[in-house]
Hints:
It is a single chain. This protein has twelve helices and eight strands. It is an alpha/beta fold. It has a single domain (5-256), classed as TIM Barrel (Alpha-Beta Barrel). An eight-stranded parallel β-barrel has the order 1-2-3-4-5-6-7-8, surrounded by seven helices. Helix 7 runs parallel beside helix 9 (180-197). The site of phosphoenolpyruvate has 13 residues, from strand 8. Phosphoenolpyruvate binds at residues 9, 167, 172-173, 211-214, 232-236.
Amino acid sequence: MRTPLVVGNWKMHGTLAEARPLATAIRDGTKRVKGVDVAVCPPFTALAAVGEIVRESSVRLGAQDCHAEPSGAHTGEVSLPMLLELGCAFVIVGHSERRREIGESDAVINGKVHAVLAQGLTPILCVGETGEERRQGLTFTTVEGQLRAGLAGVTPDAITRIVLAYEPVWAIGTGVNATPGQASEVHGYLRGLVSELASKEAAQVIRILYGGSVKPENTGELMAAPDIDGALVGGASLNAQGFLQIVRKAAHAGARGD
Ligand code: PEP
């Protein structure tokens, strides 16, 4: 059985004055919650401070991006050895905001997936269609292309160490989440592709998170849907009490074995 994973993506939110109390409340609020893995991904500038706060707790630290090279002349970038030093366990790769705003290509994203794995961290590889692609019936074509390109050259063994996130672009930050049925059919499709690209066993092990306007009110039904193994949470992860409700609901769905 796959343990649910709930990841908070704080995006470009969180001065140290904001990040410290948020991280402290999440750390304290998750102390007695069992059966769910939790991670927070603050901005780079807050990683060290948040890392100190969650150290020796069950809350894991993640970064929102990385550079594929270990060092070099890449102004403004952050390398994986730097993230490792701060205690990061996860790195979000290929978030749609970076694909759209920075123009990150599938090839660049694939390079990052390889680099994250090589450093022993866990990539959270994001895929998802735009609203226009969904209207045109291209949802499966889009996510399949992103998944195949993102995992190109990754060994079947290494694929089991990856976390996937299905994040329909039209659902991110809009307040309109995919229905459990819409999300579930894409998750099932992605799991089938993992089976083809790696193995049946890998497809059973890999966790596929849903992201896109997850909030306490919709977590239960989303997490109860087949093949949804947790959530990548943006806006709602900035409120500790709301995020903790999401964590508890994910744990509850996991415990039921849904
Ligand atoms: C995200 O950006 O990863 C995300 C899911 O955002 P939100 O929860 O705000 O839709």
